[in-house]
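User:
Care to share a sequence and structure tokens?

Assistant:
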Amino acid sequence: MRKVIFLLVLTILPFASGQSKSPALAPVSAPAPIAELNVVDAIILGVVEGVTEFLPISSTGHLIIATRLLHLESAKPLTSREGQPLWHKKPSPQHPAGVPLTLKLAADTYTVVIQFGAIAAVALLYWTPLMSMLLGLLGRDPAGLRLLFNILIAFIPTVVLGLLAHNWINEHLFSVGAVIIAQIAGAFLMLYAEFWRRRRAVLTPARSDFADLTPRGAAGIGALQCVAMWPGTSRSMTTIVGGYFAGLDPRRATEFSFLLGFVTLSAATIFKSYQSGAAMIQVFGWSHVLLGAAVAAITAAVSVRFLVQWLTRHGLAAFAFYRLALAAVLAVVFYL
């Protein structure tokens, strides 16, 4: 019970501190939410985020589907209760027509911001290696410093590509069709990686220690993580597969994926909050954002434990078949 309470506190703290200190997250002009989520929608999105964030099946792809099924994808410009247009970015020399505030923009931001819950789950469950990296930075833990160095090597390619391609990805790839393609491609990559790992294990035992991961291996994991910017691919899947190719055993590949995800998701969530957090709060208010993040924290903690145990015993194949089945269902539902 104490761990659950601590997890909830970790989840809420970023929002509480942002409300008082960060202008990017502070509520803006509207005195009350414009289109507040209901409790059921907030819980559904929190569960989808928490369960899928660290499983190799793509949280972004599942959240795109969920927001569509919950009718949160409307791009119609919102207006105030007085009928005045509401702006995400007001007309300016840089944006002559302005960027109107829409339900889709708020929902897309919501699905990223509630990642704070998944981040809190990793912080709680993997406190020891996180502290080891901190001690390494202070010169007190050489193994922790090597792990931190490899995490940063794997993180940098995503930062560079994310800053360059962020807007293009948001405009062109957030669709059910893109998710279907990514689910299928990712499934075949997983099946190949599992076949490669099992064949290699006969000749060379996989590494079971983070210290055995080379900078070159970390760079390969980072390069594969860039592929996950295509919605539906799965950041978790690409980094676990990258860990396989770097010679890590399934447990260590999965745990490295979690630690890399802690850094990557933190950066993405802070960036998205800065970009459009105020707009999200203006549309939805605070209460259900906190609820979604709390639900995501609890469900992510459960899914992380499940994934480590499953991959250690069974590997990636079952998740690949799930992805193929999901792609088939989506094709039938949305296109046939």
Notes: The CA atoms of residues 121 and 301 lie 5 Å apart. The first strand starts at residue 87 and ends at 89. The chain has one domain: 2-335.
